[in-house]
Write a structure and sequence with these properties.
The complex is a heterodimer of chains A (669) and B (316). Chain A contains 24 helices and five strands. Chain A is mainly α. Chain B contains eleven helices and one strand, in the order ααβααααααααα. Classes of the chains: A mainly alpha (669), B mainly alpha (316). Strand 3 of chain A pairs parallel with strand 1 of chain B, so a sheet runs across the interface.
Chain lengths: 669, 316
């Protein structure tokens, strides 16, 4: 009762904030009011959700809203408490960032009313305990974020992004609607408790699973339904991009987990293989796209797709283990997935904040115009670096923990019964390793080109450090990334009620391990201690630096760059983002993206410069979506003829249709 | 407890002390095979000492990251190297990180080094970083699948346990282990920037990857990076030795005599590995950089084949 009521109060407070957001949006203090209020509300929600998660109590509440004979059901159990904590943590960070970042907004009246509504919508989806409330909240969340994507509507690219987003969001909701229709059955029981209790045909359950995969997967960015994501997420203001990428995709994952792990019952045997294959392919495809991208925010959006792939692969693994009755292994895989959900919410928010600060300071998201920002924005650079290490799954930060847990779960696959899974899982493990290594390359490129080297434009040269609120938000998130990486045992223990609820098993208690190390199964099999690794690195680095400076030389001379004896002054001679990606383009891109590098050399004596052009094709967009859009277009053109008939022909049509309908009815009965 | 920590400390000191010797030994072997006399095996120590004493020359626009990276790279590599069993298994901190984490620690070191290559903003640094990350992105899946095969046999990713299990006679000779060995050696060659993937001795611009990345470094910074590279070579030799030749490694809590025997065995294994590396490098030519995917793709396939073979042999 208590947690649900508190969180519903948070939701109503957020909804109420939309009023001053609308009424006062042009006043100078409105941003501080709305973002400050949203920060307070999110922090309250975070505390309530954490309390519910740690106490393990579930609470529900029915409000007389919505359909009169159903009402609106809300419930908080371990699963929703965890996701509510993630949503409100991301919301709090984005609001704190927004207090500073929002001051640069040109059109605050297009952001301020929708921002708290968006936060409220995401909370409501996770709180909902019946299909009707769930779907209404889902649409609420989609439409509020759509309005935010359109905030800068004067740019044609943003309008296109919003259109694609609207179509895909509508499509996804339709799939979810059909899924709930199937699950509710002929009785029309829309409450989650009734759906959970009902028994259903395996074929119906399988169909519902595919529909949920389409509906939630399209919102989360699962390939091949991801195409809207890299368009829409970067188009919004940066703190909203962070929310969409880091939090809204997690709400979609919540929807998937809630329905597939909790409501459907035992899914078909092939669902695990489907999830693993889709997850692995999504991870590799997403990070390869990110590696080719030169727009910093789109790069981050593509990397979101990669992380969603990792989460879905872990979920597939958990399903497989659960189906074979290996609760402990399923708990390990599910913990890896949920830990990655938390991690991605942390570091993707941080990175989008950093990209927003860069966009503000240097006026561009194009990496080929940035460079050298570490000198002018040292704190932003440090935090962005922390986020880059974390997202590249490198110790001692948090990204490594979930990756490590995922590999530990993969190593349990020989115990699975099915041969298909036995062979698929190591291959998916290889794909995840490839994705992790490519992520490291991607973020060396992103950080190296944007923050290191020499400035590639005048605006990058004149960049200034971000404001205090933005820096505070980034600093807190960077610290949380490090804490989750060095003290992962606490997070794993907090996730135990969730795994017990969904897969009937939990990882062994980590809190009583000596030295705070984490042990997924048994110490003889594997263990990792982030705290000691971090301490060892810091100690030996400072010790070696101290000894070298003390015993050897400490003199330092500044000189022009050496560059093997041929230094050419000027920023154009340094490596570019496109150049950095060239080996990857050549190895992976030629087959997947049909990438081609073309050099146009002028004839000898001609003074024009040589030009290098790169063409990259998006296979999913060109092979699936463009033909589909073309088909819809042709069909609409053909049906268009029906608009220009005479009355006699319309009457004939109506008559023929009636006869056909009656025939069908007669035959049916 | 204190004794345990002392043994762990001895291992950290041992890898650090042995690393330049291993590199010097490989260089000596290569020189002798090329009918040169070559410098003394102790030359790397002298080189490091000379570099340490010199002024560090840093490019004008280098940031703080450039000056911090050498120590971070050294520290991460040293910690990783100290966690691989050398003369004794089951040391007091051996549970701090398993094989996956050790490889990931090396990944952290490489991440920083690649960033340092891009810090000054020169073409050479960038090309080195880009290619280094390309090679590592191919090596990592191969390493993962190799690890998978090893973990299947040993039932663990904890190196002390793996080497203890593989030392028992029940394991016997297995085709998958042979495949894993070949795959691991190929990955190790790529990771350590050895011929045929990269050439540690070259300063010809177009052939170098690792050397291009650290081109701007000098003095004590360069010394730290060179030392880290030597540590990495020692790490991989010890890793291959402790998994595929686990004989003589002292068990946890053994006496001084067992430790001494283990240390002697370790030195012999390092020498054998170093000799084979020198022999291999002398007898093969460096390959074009875009042939490296084929090379590492073969390692990946071997790792996967080894794993699948294990599945098949288990079910029979």
């Amino acid at each position: 009762m208590q947690a649900t009521a508190t969180l519903l109060l948070v939701v109503s407070a957020l909804l109420a904030l939309a009023v001053p957001g609308l009424a006062l949006s042009r006043r100078p203090g409105a941003g501080t009011l709305v973002y400050g209020g949203a920060l307070a509300a999110s922090l309250t929600g975070l505390v309530a959700a954490l309390a519910a998660l740690l106490s393990g109590a579930s609470s529900e509440l029915v409000l007389p809203l919505g359909l009169p004979w159903i009402g609106a059901h809300f419930r908080v159990d371990a699963l929703s408490a965890f996701f509510l904590a993630v949503v409100n943590l991301g919301g709090a960070a984005a609001s704190l960032y927004g207090i500073g970042y929002g001051r640069h907004e040109e059109a605050p009246q297009r952001v301020l009313p929708f921002y708290p509504v968006f936060l409220a919508g995401m909370n409501l989806v996770v709180l909902a305990d019946d299909a009707f409330t769930f779907l209404v909240s889902w649409e609420f969340m989609s439409l509020a974020s759509w309005a935010l994507v359109l905030a800068h509507h004067r740019e044609a690219a943003n309008r296109k992004a919003a259109t694609v987003y609207l179509v895909m969001a509508g499509f996804g909701t339709m799939a979810l609607l059909l899924a709930f229709g199937l699950l509710a059955g002929t009785g029309g029981e829309y409450g989650f408790a009734a759906i959970r209790a009902a028994s259903r045909d395996p074929a119906v359950a399988s169909l519902a699973l595919v529909l949920v995969l389409v509906g939630a997967g399209s919102k989360a960015g699962l390939a091949p339904l991801h195409v809207w994501l890299p368009l829409a997420h970067p188009a919004a203001p940066s703190h909203v991009s962070a929310l969409m990428s880091a939090v809204m995709t997690k709400v979609a994952i919540y929807g998937f987990v809630r329905i597939v792990f909790d409501l459907i019952g035992e899914p078909a045997w092939w669902s695990a293989i489907l999830l693993l294959a889709l997850g692995g392919a999504t991870a590799v495809l997403g990070i390869l796209h990110a590696l080719m991208e030169r727009d910093l925010k789109r790069l981050l959006a593509y990397s979101t797709i990669e992380n969603i792939g990792i989460v879905f692969a872990c979920l597939g693994l958990a399903l497989a283990f659960r189906a074979d009755g290996m609760g402990w292994a399923a708990a390990l895989a599910l913990t890896a997935a949920l830990f990655h959900v938390l991690n991605h919410a942390l570091f993707k928010s941080l990175l989008f904040f950093g990209a927003g600060a860069v966009l503000n300071a240097a006026g561009s998201r194009d990496m080929e115009r940035l460079g050298g920002l570490i000198h002018r924005m040292p704190a932003t650079a440090l935090f962005f670096l922390a986020g880059s290490i974390a997202i590249s799954a490198l110790p001692p930060f948090n990204g490594f923990i979930s990756e490590w847990l995922a590999f530990q779960a993969i190593l349990q696959s020989p115990n699975l019964a099915g041969w298909g899974l036995k062979i698929a899982v190591p291959a998916v493990g290889g794909m995840l390793a490839l994705a992790a290594a490519l992520a490291a390359a991607c973020f060396v490129r992103a950080f190296g080109v944007s923050f290191l080297g020499q400035p590639r434009g005048r605006e990058a040269e004149a960049a200034r450090e971000a404001d205090r609120f933005s820096l505070a938000a980034m600093g807190v998130l960077a610290l949380l990334c490090l804490l989750a990486g060095t003290l992962p045992g606490f997070v794993i223990d907090a996730l135990a009620p969730v795994t017990r609820l969904l897969v009937d098993g939990a990882m062994p208690l980590q809190a009583d391990r000596p030295w705070l190390s984490i042990v997924p199964i048994a110490e003889s099999r594997s263990s990792y201690n982030g705290l000691l690794v971090f301490a060892f690195i810091v100690l030996s680095a400072s010790l070696s630096a101290f000894l070298v400076h003390r015993l050897a030389s400490r003199r330092l001379r500044r000189a022009p760059a050496w560059d093997c004896g041929f230094p050419v002054p000027g920023a154009v001679t340094q490596y570019s983002a496109g150049g950095f990606a060239q080996p990857f383009r050549r190895i992976f891109g030629t087959t997947i993206f049909a990438a081609r590098d073309e050099v146009v050399m002028p004839a000898p004596g001609d003074a024009r410069p040589a030009r290098l052009s790169v063409t990259i094709h998006d296979p999913v967009w060109e092979r699936i979506y463009l033909p589909l859009a073309g088909a819809v277009d042709r069909l609409a053109g053909w049906l268009n003829r029906l608009q220009f008939l005479t009355i006699r022909r319309y009457l004939t049509l109506v008559f023929l249709f009636l006869v056909a309908l009656l025939m069908v009815l007669a035959l049916w009965t | 407890m204190i004794l345990d920590i002392l043994v762990q400390g001895a291992q950290m000191a041992a890898v650090l002390a042995a690393a330049p010797l291993v590199t010097g030994f490989v260089r000596k072997v290569k020189a002798r095979l090329q009918r040169r006399r070559g410098p003394s095996v102790f030359q790397p120590y002298r080189d490091l000492a000379r570099l340490m004493r010199k002024d560090a020359v840093v490019a004008d626009n280098a940031s703080w990251l450039f000056r911090v990276v050498p120590y971070l790279v050294f520290a991460a590599t040293w910690v990783a190297a100290a966690l691989v069993p050398t003369f004794a298994g089951g040391l007091v901190f051996s549970w701090t990180a398993d094989l996956i984490a050790i490889i990931a620690l090396l990944g952290t070191a490489r991440f920083f080094l690649a960033l340092a290559g891009m810090d000054v903003g020169t073409a050479f640094g960038g090309i080195g970083s880009s290619r280094e990350m390309m090679i590592s992105s191919l090596a990592e899946p191969a390493m993962m699948l190799t690890m998978f095969a090893l973990a299947l046999v040993a039932g663990s990713t904890q190196l002390s346990t793996v080497s203890a299990v593989l030392a028992t006679p029940e394991v016997g000779l297995r085709v998958s282990l042979a495949m894993a060995l070949v795959a691991l050696v190929m990955v190790a060659i790529a990771e350590n920037a050895r011929i045929p993937v990269d050439n540690p001795a070259t300063h010809l611009e177009l052939t170098m990857v690792h050397e291009a990345m650290v081109l701007e470094y000098s003095g004590r910074h360069l010394a730290m990076i060179e030392l880290a590279a030597m540590l990495k070579l020692t790490l991989y030799l010890s890793l291959i030795a402790c998994v595929f030749a686990p004989w003589g490694i002292a068990p946890a809590g053994a006496g001084v005599a067992a430790f001494a025997a283990g240390a002697a065995a370790w030195l012999v294994k390092l020498a054998a590995g170093g000799f084979l590396l020198g022999l291999f490098e002398t007898s093969i030519a460096k390959m074009r950089v875009f042939r490296v995917p084929d090379f590492l793709g073969a390692a990946l396939m071997l790792g996967l084949l080894g794993t699948l073979l294990l599945f098949v042999s288990r079910s029979m």
